[in-house]
């Protein structure tokens, strides 16, 4: 493997994930700030907010389905095919959201179309991170796998920065302009994003590890036959993504719609936290290459479970200073311990024959739970001062994820070729990776 190839793969994963998750995060921001008024105006303010956040969660329902389909494609026909497809699907669905008529124009058809496009976004996201993580892990040097795979998650943070930064001037528009055309602009901008991402991913080479691998006709069947325990472990650990959805969607909605804080400062909390995360994620991943995946991941989970309490409290009392400091500590530092490590922690549980399927299915089922976390905690914390129930729910998820990781094998010193249990396949279950789709 040449010295430049790991860097090229990591850069491609970073850029692709940044572009992909720009699309995904602008939906979450719009769901928190706008969609309750544009698509659910007939409902009460509280019900409209709940329905709007539910459409954000609907995208996660499609993720497990997409994980089975795209996991199969990625493990049988290659990581590159999945990465190109997911980018195009996300881009088309996102652009079309910006073109939707509102409830005032076509009635109930408007939220129905919104849900359909959100499902397509979820299908796309199901294969994105697993494909990018598999690509970067299989190119990475033996002793730096956590560092190189962490660039996929750095890319998601960059995508969130871009999404939030674009919404800052949009959110500052007068209310009538914001609700009529302003909210559409970030979705239309995805056309440029997709064009750049498509060029980058089309020029990316397939991984040498995949090209040397005898691929199974039914990777998912092999996955559940030999790796079912690891799939369940990843599902439980992946629920830690609830911290992200609660921070980026619920807390924003709670601050603006319930407490009455200004939109712009709350958006800036996300921008600054993600800027800090851009530096923290690779640093904490490098630490995991030195001391192991489990200590860093578990510490990050438990720190998130502790910090969510003062962060939500700071919002409830309207203290901008505290919520900035605590938001950065929670999402910029503590959650980076999770994001910096999970690509290698989860990916190293599986061999190359089932890696993309294992990561995609395990994470996307866990992420499906996380996707509905804003709706669940919105119902829990419907009263103005009931932030404590939301914090307790989040902390419980953090403990579950930490416990799941504690039962995993420590793999930071295991050679890439020895990762996962790879049984000798029978001739009837094997085709060469050169088979064309």
Give structural notes.
InterPro entries: MFS, MFS_dom, MFS_sugar_transport-like, MFS_trans_sf, Sugar_transporter_CS. The protein has 437 residues and is mainly α. The protein is 77% helix and 1% strand. Strands 1-2 form a two-stranded antiparallel ribbon. Helix 15 packs parallel to helix 17 and helix 16 (293-316) packs antiparallel against helix 17. The chain is globular and about 60 Å long.
Q: What is the count of β-strands?
A: 2
Based on helices, strands and strand pairing, what is the structural class?
mainly alpha
- SSE ordering: HHHHHHHHHHHEHHHHHHHHHHE
Helix content: over 70%
Q: How many helices in DSSP terms?
A: 21
What proportion strand?
A: under 5%
Strand order of the largest sheet: 1-2
Cα-atom Rg, whole angstroms?
21 Å
Kindly state the mean pLDDT as a whole number? Answer: 85
Distance between the termini: 27 Å
Specify the biggest β-sheet.
2 strands, antiparallel
Q: Estimate the global geometry from the Cα principal axes.
A: globular
State the low-pLDDT regions, or none.
422-437
Which SSEs are present, and which pair or pack?
Elements: H1 4-33, H2 35-38, H3 45-77, H4 79-97, H5 103-106, H6 109-139, H7 145-171, H8 175-180, H9 185-188, H10 190-202, H11 208-211, E1 214-216, H12 219-226, H13 228-238, H14 242-259, H15 263-291, H16 293-316, H17 320-339, H18 342-347, H19 355-371, H20 373-380, H21 387-406, E2 430-432
Antiparallel strand pairs: 1-2
What does this entry show, briefly?
The chain has helices at 4-33, 35-38, 45-77, 79-97, 103-106, 109-139, 145-171, 175-180, 185-188, 190-202, 208-211, 219-226, 228-238, 242-259, 263-291, 293-316, 320-339, 342-347, 355-371, 373-380, 387-406; strands at residues 214-216, 430-432. With 437 residues, the chain is mainly α. Helix 1 (4-33) runs parallel beside helix 4 and helix 16 runs antiparallel to helix 21.
């Amino acid at each position: 493997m040449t010295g430049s190839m790991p860097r090229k793969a990591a850069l491609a994963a970073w850029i692709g994930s940044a572009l992909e998750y720009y699309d995904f995060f602008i939906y979450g921001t719009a769901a928190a700030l706008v969609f309750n008024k544009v698509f659910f105006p007939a409902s009460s303010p509280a019900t409209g907010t709940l329905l709007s956040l539910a459409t954000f969660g609907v995208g996660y329902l499609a993720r497990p389905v997409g994980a089975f389909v795209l996991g199969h494609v990625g493990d049988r026909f290659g990581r590159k095919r999945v990465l190109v497809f997911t980018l195009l699907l996300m881009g088309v669905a996102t652009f079309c959201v910006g073109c939707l008529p509102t409830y005032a124009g076509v009635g109930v058809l408007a939220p129905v179309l919104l849900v359909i496009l959100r499902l397509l976004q979820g299908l796309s996201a199901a294969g994105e991170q697993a494909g990018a993580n598999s690509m970067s892990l299989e190119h990475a040097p033996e002793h730096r796998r956590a560092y190189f795979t962490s660039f996929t998650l750095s890319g998601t943070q960059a995508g969130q920065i871009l999404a939030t930064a674009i919404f800052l001037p949009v959110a500052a528009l007068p209310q009538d302009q914001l609700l009529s055309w302003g909210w559409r602009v970030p979705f239309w901008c995805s056309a440029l994003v997709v064009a750049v991402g498509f060029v980058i991913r089309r020029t990316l080479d397939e991984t040498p590890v995949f090209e040397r691998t005898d691929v199974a006709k039914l990777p998912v069947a092999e996955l559940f036959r030999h790796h079912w325990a690891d799939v369940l472990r990843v599902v439980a650990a992946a629920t830690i993504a609830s911290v992200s959805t609660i921070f980026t969607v619920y807390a924003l909605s709670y601050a603006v719609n319930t407490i009455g804080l200004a939109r712009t400062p709350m958006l800036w909390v996300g921008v600054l936290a993600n800027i800090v995360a851009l530096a923290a994620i690779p640093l904490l991943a490098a630490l995991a290459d030195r001391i192991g995946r489990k200590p860093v991941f578990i510490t990050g989970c438990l720190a998130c479970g502790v910090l969510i309490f003062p962060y939500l409290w700071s919002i409830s009392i309207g203290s901008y200073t505290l919520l900035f400091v605590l938001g950065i500590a929670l999402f910029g530092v503590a959650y980076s311990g999770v994001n910096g490590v999970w690509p290698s922690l989860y990916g190293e549980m599986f061999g190359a024959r089932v890696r993309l399927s294992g990561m995609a299915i395990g994470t996307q089922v866990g992420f499906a739970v996380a996707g509905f976390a804003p709706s669940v905690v919105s119902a829990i914390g419907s009263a103005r001062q009931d932030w404590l129930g939301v914090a307790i729910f989040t902390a419980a998820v953090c403990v579950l994820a930490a416990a799941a990781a504690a039962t995993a094998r420590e793999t930071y010193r295991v050679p890439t070729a020895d990762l996962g249990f790879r049984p000798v396949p029978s001739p009837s279950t094997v085709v060469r990776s050169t088979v064309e789709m």
